[in-house]
Amino acid sequence: MNQRYLRKRAFYLAVLARKLRSFDDVQDLTFTYHQGNAMRPILIVKPKGKGFKVRLHPYPEEGVFRLNRFHLDKNNVRQWWYRQEEKQTAHSREGDSPELGPATPHYNVWILRDLVWDVNEGHAVHQLWGGAGLTDGISLLKVWLHQRELDQGIGSFSNYIMLMFVVYLLSERKLSPLMSSYQVMRNTLLQLSQSDWCNHGISLAGDVTSEDDQPSLEDFHRSFDVVFIDRTGYLNLTADVCRATWDRVKHEARLSIEFLETPGVDAFETLFMTPVKFINTFDQCFHVKTSDRLLKCAKHLSVDSHSIDVCGITTVACLPKLIELLYKALGKRIQLLGLKLTPPDQWNINESPPTKDVMTLTFGLLLNPEAAMSMVDKGPSADSPEAAEFRQFWGDKSELRRFQDGSICEAAVWSCKTLAERRKISAKIVKHILNRYTIYSMCNLYIYIYIYIYI
Fold first, then answer.
1. For residue 340, how many other CB atoms are within 10 A of its CB?
2. CA separation (Å) from 78 to 1, 100, 252?
3. Strand bridging mode 54-56 / 334-339
4. What digits encode the pLDDT tens for the residues 285-308?
5. Total domain count for the chain?
6. Where in the numbering of this chain does the Nrap protein domain appear (predicted)?
7. One domain, residues 300 and 266
8. Are 252 and 353 in a shared domain?
9. What CA–CA distance (Å, rounded) separates 96 from 87?
10. What was the pLDDT predicted at 445?
11. CB neighbours of residue 302 within 10 Å
């Protein structure tokens, strides 16, 4: 309740670090954020004279909490506490159920990850036991993720998610323990490229007897962009994965399958030995440098309640809304919208931790050559119900326009005189949308290989 577990977890690690630094066998102790999540720090221990490091993840013993306490629909962070208000004042402001507030599915997931660790690990070990090809194939898939910078930072498609996906494919009999490492790798990438976890999530709890209050697949889809349910049926393993990251995972998996099926190509060198940099994947990139005013931006984007759910990490609170706006604005102009995942910092146990917010968001645009330089975004007919929504979305860029077929429709027009200016239309759209839906004014827009946007 009210972040007590997560704070005690961090305090426990600090006490453990203080104790370990008195040991002569310990060379170095550092903290970092697990998968970039500032509310889930871990302790990294480097033994003296050894070439490895140990990452310590604390978790409670089984049975400390009932899992249904962290149901998706339950609130475990009270608004009056988060906003430092008097309880009586909050009662008068919130109306119905003032003491509870909205559900906190992300906060609940962050605690559930520790509670169900043993269950999921035990299930994975049982499924993978005795399959040498499976373990080698998983190692290849981890390298594949790392070379594409998809396994680092908050919202990443982590190695653990990939491991559990292989376990899921085994349970669905789409993989076999008798397969070679190549077959495991190829079939897993093929299944990834064909999956749609945004609309049709998957679950490891299919053969487990469900409880009466266990959330359904539809409940998970209402709360998260990407859905992959764990063995207990309560935890979404991809709760922090945003739509842009999932789309890029599918895109890279699809390209990898094409490489594997192309004769005369050294697929191993291409897929596992060659780093795939973010800037080399996309046609255009732009950087949004955030500031201390991001909290006001959360309110402007109507995600203030979501900020409570993610413990005040306002970059995480705003990101889904920003991605939704960019997808809607760019539409058919792009084949893929990507988000660069930033690896978490490490700091010495005697130092203060870094800020919990990501100070620079980097997006990439893979353009659709047939539509990227179109000067007109055609909207609905002027007399249709959707016309008002189109005008509301585009604001002063929306205007009535007669087209060659005689129809009169709403349209967003991007005036350009040269081909060079038409190449910058995507930049104009991004700048217009971020200006319209955030409280900031954009400036310093440079277009060479990248587009830089500072807010």
1. 23
2. 8, 6, 41
3. unpaired
4. 888 776 555 555 666 666 777 888
5. 3
6. 1-117, 135-274, 280-436
7. no
8. no
9. 14
10. 36
11. 10
